[in-house]
Automatic annotation (TrEMBL):
GO terms for biological process: polysaccharide biosynthetic process. The keyword Cell wall biogenesis/degradation does not apply. Its cofactor is pyridoxal 5'-phosphate. It comes from Actinokineospora iranica. The modification N6-(pyridoxal phosphate)lysine is found at K174. This is Perosamine synthetase. InterPro entries: DegT/StrS_aminotransferase, PyrdxlP-dep_Trfase, PyrdxlP-dep_Trfase_major, PyrdxlP-dep_Trfase_small. The keyword ATP-binding does not apply. Keywords: Pyridoxal phosphate.
Length: 370
C-alpha cells in the first residue's frame, strides 16, 4: 500500500500550520461534517485512531467487566483489544470463508445472555451483511468496525449508513489517510455530543468553543474521560483526501479486476465483491491452494523476488497476547489465517507491475515446493 498523497495535501497542512490553530479546531469540525455526509451518517466525531474510536463506542454502550462482546478473531488485534480495554471478554465467532466476515449464523451461535454488544468488522473493505447480523444479535447493539471500509457499499448504500455506531481508520494503509486518526459516526445526536466530551477529558465545552466564546469561560469536567483528539493538521489532510475518495476506489477496483483476470488461470481464490455489496479493495488477498508451501516460505520467496506481500488478515486468538483465551471452533478463521496473503495494490501499480507480482507468486508456489 502507498498513501495517495500530493501537493494539495501538503498545501492544506501548511495552511493549517500557518493559521496558528493546529490542535482540534475548525478543520476537525469541517472534516467531521464532510465525512459523516459521505458515509450517510448524521454525525461524525473525529478521534486519534480507529482503536480509540472502538473503545469510545463500547464505553458509550456501558460495556464493562463481566460483559461479553462478540467479535471475529480474524481481524487486526485492535478489534479484540478495544473490548479488553473495557474489562469485557471477547467472544470469538467464526467467519465466512469467502468474505472473511462474521455472518448472521456465526454470530447466532455465540450470543449469550451476557452479550453486551456485537462488534462486526468489514474486513479489508469487504462489507459484512450487517442486516443479517443485526437480526442474529436479537436486539443486542451492533457496532461496526469500518476501519478499512471507506468507499465500500452494502445493499446499495455506503458502509456506515444507518449504523448504530461505526468506527473508522485513517491510518496510511487505508484509502483515506490523515497520517493517524479515526472517526465515530452515528445518527444519534445525544451520543455524538457525549462522544465529543469523552474524547476531550469529559469537558463540558471543547477548547475550540471556549476560545471562540470570548471572555472568561470556565468549563467543567462532567465525567472521567480520555484524550482521544484529532488535530486540525490531520483534518486539513483528511478534507483533501475525502475529495479524492471516489477516484481512489474506482482505480483500486480496476486494478483488482486486472488481478482477477491474471490469477484466474492459476486457480487461486481471491477476495471479491459479496452478493450484498461492493468492496473498495483496501486489501487484495489471495488464498493459497491446499498443498501449497507454508505461507512464511511463500512470503520469503516473494520478498526475494522484490515483491512486498504480507500475510493475510491475522487471527487474534493465535497471537501470544491471547494465548489461552477460551474460544469455540474457528475452522474458517484458522484456514484463512494459515493460507491467505495480501498482494501489493496501490495507485502507482502498473499492469507490468501486476504481471510481475503474479509471475513471482506462481514461481514462489512452484519453486518453494520443489
Amino acid at each position: 500500500m502507498k498513501p495517495f498523497l500530493g501537493e494539495e495535501e501538503a498545501l492544506a497542512v501548511a495552511e493549517a500550520v500557518r493559521s496558528g490553530w493546529v490542535a482540534q479546531g475548525p478543520r476537525v469540525a469541517a472534516f467531521e461534517e464532510a465525512f459523516a455526509a459521505r458515509v450517510g451518517a448524521e454525525h461524525g466525531v473525529a478521534v486519534s485512531s480507529c482503536t480509540t474510536a472502538l473503545h469510545l463506542c463500547l464505553h458509550l454502550l456501558g460495556v464493562g467487566p463481566g460483559d461479553e462482546v462478540v467479535a471475529p478473531s480474524l481481524s487486526f488485534i485492535a478489534t479484540a483489544n478495544a473490548i479488553r480495554y473495557c474489562g469485557a471478554t471477547p467472544v470469538f465467532a467464526d467467519v465466512d470463508p469467502v468474505t472473511g466476515n462474521l455472518t448472521g449464523s456465526t454470530v447466532a451461535e455465540v450470543v449469550t445472555p451476557r452479550t453486551k454488544a456485537v462488534l462486526v468488522v468489514h474486513q479489508g473493505g469487504v462489507p459484512a451483511d450487517v442486516h443479517a447480523i443485526r437480526i442474529a444479535a436479537g436486539g443486542v447493539p451492533v457496532v461496526e468496525d469500518a476501519a478499512c471500509a471507506a468507499g465500500s457499499t452494502v445493499y446499495g448504500r455506503p458502509v456506515g449508513a444507518g449504523a448504530l455506531l461505526a468506527a473508522w481508520s485513517f491510518h496510511p494503509r487505508k484509502l483515506l489517510t490523515t497520517g493517524e486518526g479515526g472517526m465515530v459516526t452515528t445518527d444519534d445526536a445525544d451520543w455524538a455530543a457525549r462522544l465529543r466530551r469523552l474524547r476531550e477529558h469529559g469537558m463540558s465545552m471543547s477548547a475550540a468553543d471556549r476560545h471562540a466564546a470570548g471572555g472568561a469561560v470556565v468549563e467543567s469536567y462532567v465525567e472521567i474521560a480520555f484524550n482521544y483528539r484529532m488535530t486540525d493538521i490531520q483534518a486539513a489532510m483528511g478534507l483533501v483526501q475525502l475529495r479524492k475518495l471516489d477516484g481512489i476506489v474506482e482505480q483500486r477496483r480496476e486494478l483488482a479486476a486486472r488481478y482477477h483476470e491474471m490469477l484466474a488461470p492459476m486457480g487461486l481464490r481471491a477476495v471479491t465483491d459479496p452478493a450484498h455489496g461492493t468492496t473498495n479493495y483496501q486489501s487484495f488477498w489471495v488464498a493459497l491452494p491446499e498443498g501449497a508451501p507454508p505461507l512464511a516460505d511463500v512470503l520469503s520467496r516473494l520478498a526475494g523476488s522484490g515483491v512486498s506481500a504480507r500475510r493475510g488478515i491475522m487471527a487474534a486468538h493465535l497471537e501470544p497476547a491471547y494465548a489461552g483465551h477460551p474460544h469455540g471452533p474457528l475452522p474458517a478463521t484458522e484456514d484463512l489465517a494459515r493460507r491467505s496473503l495480501i498482494l501489493p495494490l496501490h495507485h502507482e501499480l502498473t499492469s507490468a507491475d501486476q504481471r510481475r507480482v503474479v509471475g513471482a507468486l506462481a514461481q514462489a508456489i512452484e519453486l518453494v515446493a520443489s
